[in-house]
Design goal:
- It is a single chain.
- The protein is mainly alpha-helical.
- The protein has helices spanning 6-20, 28-35, 39-51, 76-84, 109-124, 128-132, and strands spanning 55-58, 64-67.
- The protein contains 6 helices and 2 strands; from the N terminus they run αααββααα.
Length: 140
């Protein structure tokens, strides 16, 4: 089964909520209430999204988070990779991981790279705005 992590899934939910009100300074608590996600999960996500420059953090009593880019400028690939790392269906397709194939050669390894690239390219052509405003994927 091909599946992204729950944390990545939740990041799309949180960022889509933020995209609907892109100028709003969101507290972790407000985002948790709006999305019905647990506060600790939202806090963890916001920290990771800020580390990857997808949101900007403002400290202080009136602090919170705001999107760093317009919703139509952030691809789904960038969000997914910020949470889950490189898009890769298999370890051998990700140059950072070692393949654990038992054979000294693998007849399918050379094909995983183009497959991963196709998936990444498709996700690069879809944007946070597509999720936030419930557009059918691939439509303008």
């Amino acid at each position: 089964m091909l599946r992204m992590s729950k944390l990545a899934d939740y990041s799309f939910i949180v960022m889509a909520q933020m995209a609907r009100q892109p100028q709003t300074l969101w507290s972790v608590t407000a985002l948790a209430e709006a999305t019905t996600l647990p506060v600790p999960t939202v806090a963890k996500l916001m920290k990771r999204l800020a580390q990857n420059a997808l949101v900007r953090a403002q400290r202080g009593a009136m602090g919170g988070y705001v999107l760093a880019y317009a919703p139509h400028a952030v691809s789904l690939a960038v969000i997914l990779e910020a949470i889950d790392g490189p898009i890769s269906l298999t370890a051998c397709a990700n140059s950072n991981e070692r393949c654990h194939c038992a054979a000294s050669w693998c007849a399918v390894r050379q094909n995983w790279g183009p497959i991963n690239q196709t998936i990444r390219q498709y996700l690069n052509e879809l944007y946070l705005a597509d999720l936030a405003f419930e557009r059918r994927m691939g439509e303008a």
